[in-house]
Amino acid sequence: MQHAVGAPLPPPHGPGHHGHHGHPGPGGGGAAGSAGPPPAPGGPAPGAVPPQAPPGAVPPPPTGAPGAVPPAPGWTRPGPPHPAGPPAREAAGHVQLPPVPPVPLPAAPESGTGATMLAVLLIGPAGAGKTTVARYWATHRRVPTAHISLDDVREWVCSGFADPKTGWNENSEAQYRLARRTCGFAARNFLANGISCILDDAVFPDRPVVGLGGWKRHVGPGLLPVVLLPGLETVLERNAERSGNRRLSDEEVAGIHGRMAGWYGSGLPIIDNTKYDVETTARVLDETLARAIASPPSW
Question: Mind listing the pLDDT tens digit for each residue in 98-139?
Fold first, then answer.
């Protein structure tokens, strides 16, 4: 039999029904006018007219009686609704972690600078190891500390770099002063943001206005200078291991080392690291700075 024209039955959408627009329903037809399944035993007699559902009504779901058509391949029966809220901690994949106490601050050291914020100027000749020691000291402090090397900043100039090895002239002097101002600005910026800093430079005692006085003007009166001055043989050996712009001739190294001897008697703290490795020198530097904090040198 055919449904009344203009009032086709909508596809069922209840549990167990998988008919969909464009997919065959339980009857296998899906279009108006298709034949339904054969009557079940004990049903209405052949030729009897079954009662018509009112227009727009949804037929009841099948009861699983003999002759019911199984769901189409690829379709599955809807499962129970998802539970509201997150899964319980006992569920698989959700392991409750034990409580973790906050990490305590390390105990204050018996000696050294500890957590004091400060600015340091490490002075020394080429080959004294000041850059290596300064970086090591800054890396192993318990508070944020920056390392600023004047030689690194000078070498930011690529084309037109005035290499002092070719002779100290007005160009190399101008680039040195520019690099020192840049380092001083960086140091003040770090200090203003709560970060200590250590700078290293080969400052000569016979040029106090250009060297030590310049650093004091650019960084501030709280700058703590320390001289790193090993023996001449040690300086020559370390210079021989360098390369590029950092390596100087033995004559230049000996001349710089001789001029650095003028720091003796200046009142600045001096560390002879001839027999020290980097770690030991950094420890001695920290102890020297602690004494300088308690009794600042006059310079």
Answer: 665 554 444 444 568 988 999 999 999 988 999 999 999 999
Considering its fold, how many domains does the chain have in total? Answer: 1
**Domain span holding position 223:** 119-294
pTM higher than the cut 0.85: no
The DSSP secondary structure of the chain, one letter per residue, reads --PPTT-PPPPP-STT---BTTB--TTS--STT---PPPPTTSPPTTPPPPPPPTTPPPPPP---TTPPPPPTT-----PPPPSSPPPTTSTT-PPPPP-PPPPPPPPPSSS-TT---EEEEE--TTS-HHHHHHHHHHT-SS-EEEEEHHHHHTT--TT---GGG---HHHHHHHHHHHHHHHHHHHHHHHTT-EEEEEE---TT-TTTTHHHHHHHH-TT-EEEEE---HHHHHHHHHT--GGG---HHHHHHHHHHHGGGTTSSS-EE--TT--HHHHHHHHHHHHHHHHHSPPP-
pLDDT digits (tens, 9 = 90+) for 23-39: 444 444 444 444 455 55
22 found inside a domain:
no
184 lies in some domain: yes
